[in-house]
Structures are given as C-alpha cells and as structure tokens.
Design brief:
heterodimer; A: about 15% helix; B: two-stranded antiparallel sheet; 26 helices
Amino acid sequence: MQKRLDEMAYEEEGVVAKVQERARTRVAGMGVRVGKKIKMLTKEPLKGPVVVVVDEADISLGVGIADKIIVEVDG
Amino acid sequence: MKILLMGHPNVGKSVFFNRLTGANIIESNYPGTTVDFTKGYMRLEGKDIEIIDVPGTFALEPKDKAEEVAVRMLHESKGSKVMCVIDASKVERGLYLALEIIEQGFPVVIALNMWDVAIDKNIDIDAKKLEQILGIPVVSTVAISGEGISTLASRLKDATPVKVEDIVERTEGIKHKANTPDERWALIEGISKKIVTFGEYQHTLKDAIGDFTVKPATGIPFAIAVLYGFWSIFGSFAGFFTDGFLVKIFDEHWLPWLQAVFPGGLGNWFYALVVDVGHLENGVLAASDNCFESFGALSSGLFVPMGVVLPAIFIFYLMLALLEDIGYMPRLAVLIDTVLHKIGLHGYAIVPSILALGCNVPAVGATRILETKKQRFMMMTLLAVFIPCGAQIGIMQDVIPGSIGFVMLYLIAGYFIFGYILNKIVPGKTPEILMDVPPYQRPMSRNISRKVWMRTSGFLKVAVPLVIFGSLLVNILYLAGTIDWLGNILAPMFEGWFGVPRETAGPLVAAFLRKDLAVAQLSAIEMTKYQMISAVVLVSIYFPCIATFAMMLREGGKTFLGSLAVLLVVVFTWGGLLHLLWKLMGVA
C-alpha cells in the first residue's frame, strides 16, 4: 500500500516509492531517495514538521515537502 | 593553489580547519555555525597554502543563503583542491556531495571523519577499496582527537580530477551515467554495497533521549522546562554576582575612591563628565552615592558593562554553548516550527532569535541560515526591533526586577503580531523546513570554554569603550543643554503619546550607542512604575544600537530601509498602545 510520507503513522516503516520532481533535488542530498527505507519517528501537532529516520539519521521535513514523497508500507 | 574544506553541516569541518591552521573557529552541534566563509593558512611541505572553511552544504543545489555561499565559492575557485569531509557513520549521504564535487572537475580528497562513531555503530567501511573505486585519496579521521589529519594533508598532492564515467566503470554493474539525483544515488548504492557492511545497530540511551525530546507529547513540556530553567539560572546567577558583590564593590569602594582622588570636585564640568554629575538636594548640589546615578564615564561607564552586564552575558553564553554543543537547538527548531511557520518563518528562526537574546549583532548574521530573502528580511527586522539583548536584559533585571516579565511578554507578543502582519504584506516565499537533526553528543569543555571566552571577550571589547563613550557624549549633551532642548521639543510626543517624562530624551540618545547604558540612565529619572515600563519598552523597540545598525546594513543592503519603516510603525503603535493600556487601567 502506498501513502504520502506525512500520512504515515508513528513508528511506521516503509520504502520510498516516489519523490515528486519538485522536491527531488532538495531531499536527495539528505539521503531521501527511491528505494530507501524510511521510518516515521514523530509528527509535530497542527501540521507541524515530521521527523523521519533515514540511514540512522534523523531528518525533519515540513509537511509541504513530506507530502511530495510517496512511501510503500506494509498492509 | 587553494584548498576548500567542504562537507555537510555539522560534520566537524571547523574542527578540521582549527587543526590545520591553528585558528579559533567556533563549532556547534547544529548546522549553520559557519554562515560566512573563513580563510586561513596551513603549512604544507614548507609552503603556506590558503585554506577556506566553506559553509556546510548538503548538495550543490543550494537551499539557503549559507549553502549559496558554499556553491558560489566552489564555482569561483576553479583550480583549487577540495577536502571533502564526510561523516563516516553516514557515508552514503556524504558520498552524494563528494560525487557532485567530483563531477564539477575538482581534485578531491575525502576524509571519512567521525570514524570512531562509525565503529561504535558497527559500520565497517573499506577505505582502501573506496579509494580504488573513486580514484582519489580517502583517509579515515577523527578530527576531535586529531587522528588522521596529517595523513590527510600529506595526501593532498595525490588528488587529481577523475571522470565519473571511470568511477561508474570501476563500480561494475552500473550501466548508466550519474547525472541526475536518482542516477547518482544508484551509483552510490553500488559503491556502498562493495565497501560498507552495516552491523546490527544498538539503540543507545542517547537515541532514546533524542526521541523523547523531539516527540511533541514529551518534547514540548521538556522544551518549556529547558527555557524556564535557562531563564531562572540566568536571573539568579546574574543577580547573585551583581547584587551580592559587584554593586558593593562599585558603590562602596570604586565610586567613593574616584570622588576622593579625582581633581575638580562637584560642579566642575570635567569632574561631572568623568566621575559624578551629582544631583540637587534642597537646591544644593550633592554627591551621588551609587553608580547608577553618578553618570560619569569612569563610574557608570564602567559599572554598567562590568558590574551588571558581564555576569549576565557570561552565564547566557555558557548556557547557550551547552545547549548548542549537546545538540538541543535543532530539536527546539523542530518543535517550534509549527508556530513560527504561521508567521512566515520556520523553526530555524529560533537560532537567530535566541542568539539575539545574547547580542543582536551575531544574530543578524545568523539570519543567513534562513532560506528566502523574505524570511531573512522579516527575521532581521523582528529581532532588531523586538528582542532585547543580553546586556539590556541584564540591566533590566537590576533596575526593574518586578516588571521584567511583563516587558518580555509585551515584546514577545509584538514579535508574533508584527511577524504575522509582515508575513501577510511582504512578498516572497516561505519554504518548508528541511533539516538534519544530529544526535546528541557530550559537550567538550575545551570547546565550551573557548566559545564562552570568544563571545564574552568580544562583548567586552565592544561594549566597554562604547559605554564609556556613550556616557561622555550624553553628559556633554546634558551640559550643553541639548538634551533639555530635545526633551522640550519632543515633549508633546513623549508625554502625550508615549506617556513617559520628557527627560527620557537623554537615555534614548544613549540607546543609539548602548541599550544597557540607556536603561541604566532611565533608572535615575523620577517616574512611576508604569512610565518606567513604557520607557524600557521604548528603549527596546526604538532604533537598534549602532553595532546592530551596521550589521543590518551589511547583511540586508537595501532591505534595511524596509526594516526602518517597520521600526517606525512599531515604535508609534506598539509604544503608544502601552500608554493606552495604562490609561484603560487608570494608572497613567
């Protein structure tokens, strides 16, 4: 099942399936790329940023970037 | 030949730079410490070679002003060699940047830094093989302890430009080129498979604390506790030293001694400038008994920076250095992003905002970590207008201890309200936050002490001469009658609109030079508690001190005029509103 990164639940893990063109170069340098395992660490309330784990590094992304990343999750 | 030191933010480039050049550069556990580049020289094989510490960047597509500087520097430095510092525990991410630099045709050496951290995380990297595949020198280093640094320097001569196609070929199994982000990543994954083995990663207590302090349910209460703790320690430490010791030393020993030995005596104009202007008691000129009221360049002029502000500045920078080094700032930025995003800034605006509580000057420089022109303009303006500096807060704590909380709240409210309005009317984009949240680390005492020393001594070097000069200038203007003249002309505005005595003109002139001096001088004017609050708020929001002024001009260029316009509007509305509030409460 695919969902947007900002829709993932706490502690949910998945694999990046697609990064929309507009966000691709911005997140590439931080290690977010198609095929990479990604884990949702936390989401700040009121549409605040999400914090995800990629390659054991914590990265924070605003919702406006997170919603351009599609993740394949189990179930 | 020049050498550019490049890498992600927060991988220890500044430590490298210090080791290679012997210079003093501040490093912090958050991105953006090096927002401007730093130049130095290292000695290599009998020659002095220029080396540049480039601001950290994740990729060569810049996303903020600091990264822009990095990319521009690279493009302007054809013919230089690049020392690319990579966090060995995040080697893939680092290789992405390294590949981009190699693609540009630069000779590169790679430092796999934080090698010890990689070992702790059971990450095993075959540096020799990586060197083979890339065709450039690769050295494992631990910059903090100095391990590998001299090897790295000696390998610089082996760095030659390489073709990415050759790397692709040596990696084997990769068919395409590496021109787009996706292709680049495919190549890195191919390389990584050959050189890195990731062992089982044990989550540590540090990681658990890291999670705890960034998840909203636990992180927000924790952040409030941290900020509250910061504030209480700041207040009690500064109060303890100022009231407990320094006030006594200055009032009971220094001032009487000056009064006794300085030639001239009360009424003499030179004595008034330097030691004590005195005050009228039943029509007779009497000597002052404390350094707040004496106004002399050597009495008040020394007491304000050394007696009141120094302890405040010291404890502020000590605690800030601890928070920075531990790595708390990025987490605070994530937590507060929600709120700041609503006023067009983003979480990272917390860094210049908190720096400004120490001194507005470096804070204006730190606005470079924000991404767009709009954000930088807003941040610069808001902090210069609404955030009182550590020197001013320190003296406020001594002069208006009971009302300081209200003054701070009133200023913070202004920061958000005017931020909200500016966000609506200033054209431009407010991009989303995108940043690395580095793991916590144990603060290094050497780093902390150097940082506190550099910042505190920087304060003393600027503040003491300026306060002494400011005292002299205001005294001369008093003696010449200029202040009274100004006060009388502006009286309708001061008394009618702002509700403060016309004598406030003097401190407001002083506020141009130093805000701490201005607040100290306010304390010598007779007025009600509410007038005092209004006057202190006016000192805060009206023109920034001269040093901040200069920095805003340098950083903001033309947008400085915009800041000035905002400032004028704020002074009249926000200052006048307070008077209205007092009227409604029946206290004005």
